[in-house]
Write a structure and sequence with these properties.
Blueprint: H1 23-28, H2 43-51, H3 60-72, H4 79-94
Region (Disordered): 1-36
Protein name: Negative regulator of flagellin synthesis
Biased composition (Low complexity): 24-35
């Protein structure tokens, strides 16, 4: 079975016909100069790519602020507030 770019499924259009790709990868593989294609990412794919960004995982400055506040005694831990938050999230999961 051959899949071509005239498929009735819009997600498959251009996949087998070689119309999608990265210009930089074409240039490095010796493809014809001047050929340019684009890939459009869905909002969900852009969101996942942003989540994959390792720089956004840990806010070093914020971690240091919390460490300093704990060390100086400025930050007070309220166990009952933590317990209330955990119970609320469990209730939401059980709904």
């Amino acid at each position: 079975m051959k899949i071509n770019s005239t498929s009735s499924n819009p997600l498959l259009n251009g996949v087998a016909g070689g119309t999608r790709g990265d210009t930089a990868s074409h240039a490095s593989s010796g493809a014809v100069a001047g050929s340019r294609t684009a890939v459009d990412l869905s909002p969900a794919a852009r969101h996942l790519a942003a989540l994959n960004d390792s720089d956004a995982d840990v806010q070093i400055e914020r971690v240091q602020q919390i460490r300093d506040a704990l060390a100086s005694g400025e930050l007070k831990i309220d166990p009952s507030r933590i317990a209330d938050g955990l119970l609320a999230s469990v209730r939401d999961l059980l709904k």
